[in-house]
Amino acid sequence: MSFQSLGLHDRILQATDDAGYSQPTPIQAKTIPAILSGRDLIGLAQTGTGKTAAFTLPLLSQLVSSNHDLTERAARVLIIAPTRELVQQINQSIRTYGKFTNLRTAIVMGGASEKHQIEKLQSNVDIVIATPGRLMALMKDGHCNFGKLTHLVLDEADRMLDMGFLPDIQAITESLPKRRQSLLFSATFPQQVERLAKTILKDPHTIEVGARSNPAETVDQYLYPVEPHLKTPLLIELLEDHQFFSVIAFVRTREDADLLTKDLRGAGIDTEAIHSDRSQNHRARALRDFKASKLRVLVATDIAARGLDIPNVTHVVNYDFPGQSDDYIHRIGRTGRAGAEGCAITFLTENDGERLKKLERHIGKTLAKRFLDGFNYKVPAPEEEKERRFVKRQPKRHSSDRFENSPRGKARKTAKKTTQKRTDWRKPKKRK
């Protein structure tokens, strides 16, 4: 099957050919004709399947084919996504596939100039791509005119609800014209997403590609049991293997991301962190450098990495065990994209047993355990670490979203002391 057989406009086909794409992915082959037919749609697919192009291509084709009077421009497409990175990725997709059209886009998201975004909205654009929070704020202030809107897209709907955006999404959709085509894309389909779909979609066509909530078959998955104080030394040892060429390491908190980045840099490994405390310019630069292979390791929290489309990631390392099973799916979905091979490594501590049981039930398989040859697993924890673990236990955490926003207080001070003693992990302490 080719893109030419899907009914796309000639200008869009010219752009796909110019970008070097000739054959659609399975989600694109099924979704594009359905969207072009005008029906509402639910698209369920894992990350890395070509989902973004699955809706941007037909939407662009519809706009070009509509012969709309460009002298009376107004926003006709609204695309809502959970993170700034995903908004930028969608915008780049539209620029790539809409390069032979005169369509205009506007980005609405936090971390960027609100004044500039308002000016852009008032310049009569065709497509608005937005995060829910900033969009809701601008709509309340009367800066958005969606009176002529014809298409709505909710991308990564499951994650938007996980992040607490349901009230904003409900308020936004209720203010839009009732006569429109609505599309909802999600990697998972829990009851909350299903209820949302019923309120905003009319007789939707459901398309599901691949096993829902399961990792790609091309990703090898392994557990590495390790004591908490040895996770960083173990990661550094693993990175001595040059097959670990492009690595994303996931941690629970922003503080952990900064600390691990500092430790890896201290070991001579080109590393950068992305999380919600970093500026948009900083995050964008880090992503550019990582894609250009100027960085070997990208340390990220779950929220910051959501929706990233980075080709050729060789390894994902779950430095901290994911808080939810779905987070595991989304994390390791950063590698093995579009059928490529990848490897996912999860560090397993003695406190992760219950989460591991839930995860293995969720994905329907038992993960194999591995140990790194030559690594000294018997280095004892520093006294400060022992006191933290056995005298003052940390409260149990349940959600990766809470992880990113949780303060670490004294525990972080302890961790800083610990990292200064990580340089001698290969040598066991001498007994007196």
Automatic annotation (TrEMBL):
Record's keyword terms, sorted: ATP-binding, Helicase, Hydrolase, Nucleotide-binding
Compositional bias of type Basic and acidic residues: which residue ranges?
398-407
- Matches recorded under PROSITE patterns: DEAD_ATP_HELICASE, HELICASE_ATP_BIND_1, HELICASE_CTER, Q_MOTIF
The answer, when asked if Cytoplasm is one of the entry's keywords, is: no
Q: Which residues form the Helicase C-terminal domain?
A: 218-383
Q: Which InterPro entries match?
A: DEAD/DEAH_box_helicase_dom, DEAD/DEAH_RhlB, DEAD_box_RNA_helicase, Helicase_ATP-bd, Helicase_C-like, P-loop_NTPase, RNA-helicase_DEAD-box_CS, RNA_helicase_DEAD_Q_motif
Residues in Helicase ATP-binding domain copies = 32-207
The Swiss-Prot or TrEMBL record annotates one GO molecular function as: RNA helicase activity
User: Where in this protein would one find the motif Q motif, according to its record?
Assistant: 1-29
Region Disordered: start-end pairs: 383-432
Q: Which residues form the DEAD-box RNA helicase Q domain?
A: 1-29
Where is composition skewed (Basic residues) in this entry?
Answer: 409-420
Entry-linked CDD domains: DEADc, SF2_C_DEAD
Q: Name one GO cellular component term.
A: cytosol
Family as reported in the entry's similarity comment: Belongs to the DEAD box helicase family.
Protein name, please? DEAD/DEAH box helicase
Source species, please?
Oceaniferula flava
